[in-house]
Amino acid sequence: MEPAVGSFFLLFSMSQGTPLNEAQALDWLRQLEDPGQRYYAAWWLGRMRSHHPEAAPLLIQALAERGPRPDPASGIDEPNPIARNAARALGKLADSRATDPLLEALESSDDGLREAAARSLGQLGAIKARRPMLRRLAPGPLVAGAPRPGTSRLMEPCEALLEALGALGWQEEDGSTVTDREPLLAVVRAYADHERPLIRSAACRSLLQLTQEDGWGEQLVHLLQHNELQVRRAALLDLGATGWRLAGTAIARTLAENSLKLIALRGLVENSPARNQASPSPSPEEVELLLAMDDLL
Amino acid sequence: MPSALPDSRQVQVLMDAVQAAQTADDLTDAVEDLSACPHPMAIPCLIQVLGFNNPGAAVAAVDGLVAIGSAAVPAILANLDEYNYGARAWSVRALAGIGDLRGLPLLERALAQDIGPSVRRAAARGMGGLQPHGFTAQQRQELAERILPQLKAACGDEEWIVRYAVAVGLESMEHWWRPPAAQRQRLLDTLEPLADPQREAVPVVWLRARLALNHLAAPSPVTRA
């Protein structure tokens, strides 16, 4: 699941008075005096999926910016906040110039920046990122997936890395597909037993995307009954990302907000390998999912 | 509707359980039990639950109010909490589910102005799913003239789920409007842009709008459970 950045929007739009437009966002990102404005502008350009030719270059520049955690009174509570927001935004702009700078960010000592970079590389479908991401996860759940002392985080941003590997699939840069799949699958499978349910959910999502084996979908459906709402929410979104349609009924019954269940069911319709892209009308299976969505409106 | 109303003592016991609930889960369970015995006596209790900031319990309370139906509408309208955003959203959902015309002004305001997509989507569905019992053909036509432009305007909503709900709402207008052929074409014309992958970016929205068009084009009207 992506971290909620929206709360900052409220905070900033309250302090700044008027909402931004694209030209103003670019100005805010260009100036260097006010880091708060740069932070917000980076977020805004991603949120609005700016197509302006200057957006990606400015964000790539911002990605290199390092700085300590700002004064909490600013409303920003993370180190390297501008670089992190720039990394998040670049994942949404679909500009391939961002790939190499993001690969560099994936090697940062800041695990939060690595996390943002991994998610964006997955969103961009950056095949080059498969190897370095796999290398980060390879030490296994007891090392890369060990708690980072004094924080609630792990040594590596495992959730983001696992999800990105699933999103990348098996395509190679030359257009062929990976033939020797077991090494990657073995690394990812190890995380399906991680002690944290959110990591298990991410691993199952990734494995379901990579293998299309129903067993991983069944494990995600099992997580829909977890006693923590946060886990049920993550499993909903993970199932939506895979498009595993056998989960439709279980999703509709999950104890969570209808809004999230609707997003998950949308995912089953749109992301399933069974979806016939050429057909303007829904298949009978898709009609079932649509009617389940109707009941949640 | 249940075949027989549960007796009032039974309802009182269930309401007492709602008041006595100590945890969020207990509250949800108690409200689910109360909502399974839809009785007008329970209306104030169910409306109160809408303001508790407990989504599980609120979903159950909305179900209960919808099951009670029209009898709950005056109380819902009289108890709208202007200061509690969450509670207001749940009230809109209950009114949308009931389909009583007295709730229409509130649904209209919600669709046009509410900042919450979940509220606008409920309003769009509710405006299409009204149940104007006993209306003449002309009254139904007038009601359609009032609602159709508002749903058409909401086809431009920035949130995909609201546009999805508009497609569902337009489809369900047919059930009560029963439009003559020329009017029916207006319904199809309103749905057409939502069903067009060139104009609607989100596949699940154009698939739903296409399903609505398929239903409306079917020789006999498709009724849904």
Entry keywords:
heterodimer, A: 297 residues, mainly alpha, 16 helices, 59% helix, disordered N terminus, B: 225 residues, Leucine-rich Repeat Variant, 12 helices
Kindly describe this structure:
- The complex is a heterodimer of chains A (297) and B (225).
- By secondary structure, chain A is mainly α.
- Chain A has a domain at 181-271 and 287-297.
- Chain A contains 16 helices and no strands.
- Chain A is globular and about 55 Å long.
- The model of chain A is unreliable at 1-18 (pLDDT under 50).
- Chain B has 225 residues and is mostly helical.
- In chain B, 44% of the residues are buried.
- In chain B, helix 1 packs antiparallel against helix 2 (24-35), helix 8 packs parallel to helix 10 and helix 9 (137-154) runs antiparallel to helix 10 (160-177).
- Chain B has a domain at 1-98: Leucine-rich Repeat Variant, CATH 1.25.10.
- At the A-B interface, helix 15 and helix 16 of A face helix 4, helix 8, helix 10 and helix 12 of B.
Secondary structure topology:
The complex is a heterodimer of chains A (297) and B (225).
Chain A: H1 6-16, H2 22-30, H3 35-47, H4 55-63, H5 81-93, H6 99-105, H7 111-124, H8 130-137, H9 158-168, H10 182-190, H11 197-211, H12 214-223, H13 229-242, H14 248-253, H15 258-271, H16 284-294
Chain B: H1 8-20, H2 24-35, H3 43-49, H4 55-68, H5 73-78, H6 85-98, H7 104-113, H8 117-128, H9 137-154, H10 160-177, H11 181-191, H12 203-217
Helix pairs in contact in B: 1-2, 2-4, 3-4, 4-6, 6-8, 7-8, 8-10, 9-10, 10-11, 10-12
Distance between the termini of chain A: 23 Å
Number of helices of chain B: 12
| Overall CATH architecture of the domain at 1-98 in chain B | Alpha Horseshoe
Gyration radius of chain A, rounded: 20 Å
Brief characterization of the structure:
The complex is a heterodimer of chains A (297) and B (225). Chain A has 16 helices and no strands.
